[in-house]
Amino acid sequence: MTEEDSQHFVSLRTYFDTRINALQKELEQALKANATAIQKAEQATEYRLANLNEFRASLADQTAQQATKQELEAIRTTTNVRIEALRESHAAKIEALQRIVYLGLGALTLLQFLIQAGLFKWGN
Q1: pTM
Q2: DSSP H helical segments within the chain, as ranges?
Q3: What average pLDDT does the chain have?
Q4: What radius of gyration, in Å, describes the C-alpha atoms of the chain?
Q5: How far is the C-alpha of 37 from the C-alpha of 28, rounded, in Å?
Q6: Which one of 39, 60, 82, 122 has the minimum C-beta count within 10 Å?
Q7: Distance CA 62, CA 70 (A)
Q8: What is the pLDDT of residue 6?
């Protein structure tokens, strides 16, 4: 091997050593960046899951406070029964009031007739 070949070999070796060191540094930086990205992704996932658990708890509370279909049906039935009872009571009261009004009008008509009959008799 000649001296020129040996210098060429040294320069190639230096080049490859330099290149390998640079690639190792890039790889280390990429691995650090990857680790940082994974850590941030894990934190974001934990935050999202915490919010999701909070939402689930809120939804469970809301669901627990809502009336069931059976409860609403019972309330509707009870309300309809009460409304019907009020209608019947109202109709009975109106009928009684109409009777009183008709009796009062009849009494006034009779009184008017008697007054006119008395005035006619005394007027003659």
Answers
A1: 0.42
A2: 3-65, 69-123
A3: 88
A4: 52
A5: 14
A6: 122
A7: 18
A8: 61
